[in-house]
Amino acid sequence: MTIAEPPIRALHKDRRVTGDGVHMVARSYQKGVRLDPHMHREAQLVYAASGTMQVTTPKGRWLVPPDRAVWVPALLPHAIDVLADIEMRTLYFDQAWLAREKRSDSLGHEFVVRVSPLVHQAILALFDASCGRERTDLLIRLVMLELHQAEDSATFIPLPQEPRCRRAADIVLADPTKDHEIDALARTVGTSARTLSRLFAAETQLSFKSWCQRARIAAAIERLSTGTNVSVKQVASDLGYASVPAFSHAFRQVTGRTPTAFAEKT
């Protein structure tokens, strides 16, 4: 596993050093770019000010549209797939800084946060060249204070590790729009429907049906956040829902919002 070079040794046009322990990187990536599995010595908050990305860790897969950001602990393997052109703004935090701030324990696992307008503006302000040291420190503390208050698992798809269950999950993810029957899927991966159902519950904390619904809604989120002039009605039809109300109900169950409200935010 590659340990990426820390972004703190030299100042480049896309890098800023804010002081002892917190560092920032601004980069642009085009749709289709993949950052293969790697890790950093620092923890990081990865935010796409525009565009959509997908972040994969051993625990699962997060879809990260513009109103989300992902926290990645130090030395955690992760990969990033760019689903739509992004303007990435990343904050890196040394472990010593987190320890001094007494935040190491609470930030020991990866998670996604919903980015409020306040946090969005705070992150953008951090990359303003005229932002002084005192203002920078205050903005960083504001962002950190908001992290756990905004934790959100709506776009998370837990990935099972047991080989048969993982093969079944990969089949579903390859075509989440299909109505996957657990009996047929179990035969394909060489087990019984009862065993596969038990494995999904144990490995993902979701029933097979709920897990498939989450995968389908994640596909809808990807379409809504990366498609050009795509309508909710079209997405509902493409994903196999009988009607827009049925799609909206399922979408709200997973995300807490209607697809129309989600599309307006992206």
From TrEMBL:
This is AraC family transcriptional regulator. Pfam families: AraC_binding (PF02311), HTH_18 (PF12833). Keywords: DNA-binding, Repressor, Transcription, Transcription regulation. The lineage of its organism: Bacteria, Pseudomonadati, Pseudomonadota, Alphaproteobacteria, Hyphomicrobiales. It comes from the Bacteria. Residues 166-265 form the HTH araC/xylS-type domain. It comes from Bradyrhizobium macuxiense. InterPro entries: AraC-bd (IPR003313), Homeodomain-like_sf (IPR009057), HTH_AraC (IPR018060), HTH_AraC-typ_CS (IPR018062), RmlC-like_jellyroll (IPR014710), RmlC_Cupin_sf (IPR011051). One of its GO terms (molecular function) is DNA-binding transcription factor activity. CDD domains: cupin_NimR-like_N. SUPFAM superfamilies: Homeodomain-like, RmlC-like cupins.
